[in-house]
Amino acid sequence: DGGITQSPKYLFRKEGQNVTLSCEQNLNHDAMYWYRQDPGQGLRLIYYSQIVNDFQKGDIAEGYSVSREKKESFPLTVTSAQKNPTAFYLCASSPGSQETQYFGPGTRLLVL
Amino acid sequence: QKEVEQDPGPLSVPEGAIVSLNCTYSNSAFQYFMWYRQYSRKGPELLMYTYSSGNKEDGRFTAQVDKSSKYISLFIRDSQPSDSATYLCAIRGGSSNTGKLIFGQGTTLQVKP
Question: How distant is the Cα of A55 from the closest Cα of chain B, in angstroms?
Fold first, then answer.
């Protein structure tokens, strides 16, 4: 059953804590993306990776970090430097960077 | 000026109505146009994808692109309560682009039985 999975579905962060959101895909896609969605706003790009072991900052990378050690995995860490982390986080992948992006189910991050 | 503008709604229509959702964009270099549907608390799913001016149909859905006016639309015929969702337009540049999508704010649609 091919697709993109994100975990957990809900995540709670305490002040000063780093948290990591998981994104896995079994579609054999080269490119992967992380977006943030806030109420009343469109999706904003945090980081993207066009190939394994390479990634680039998107429009709102400050306070976030990523890694791409495996083709199928692109975890996102929300660091303590991100002062307003409450949002819905969406991972996407595409066969190549110029092709259609498909989204995972999302992770909702809340601050305690 | 935002690169992509979309009326956030909300838009409420009776079942069976024709729905028109619209986006405008500012950069004439944009070449690829997508519509995503997002149900509450779910990830967006791709509805329509087009790269040329004109109309593209898929069942009850028609995507329209007018590059001269920098205007894209999604029409939903015979709307159903199951169409109630947020609709996001997304636009991408040409071949030199990294593949980054630029999204509109999304329009929330409610179809009442």
Answer: 11
**Nearest CB partner across the interface for B43, out of A48, A100, A105:** A105
Which amino acid does the sequence have at B96?
Answer: S
Residue A100: list chain B partners with CB under 8 A. 34, 46, 49
pLDDT band at B93 (very low <50, low <70, confident <90, very high): confident
Contacts of B95 in chain A (CB under 8 A): 98
For the stretch A26-36, pLDDT in tens is 999 999 999 99
pLDDT at site A67: 97
Provide the b/e sequence for B51-64 (b: ≥16 CB within 10 Å): eeeeeeeeeebbbb
How big is the CA angle at B67 (ends B66 and B69), to the nearest 5 degrees? 70
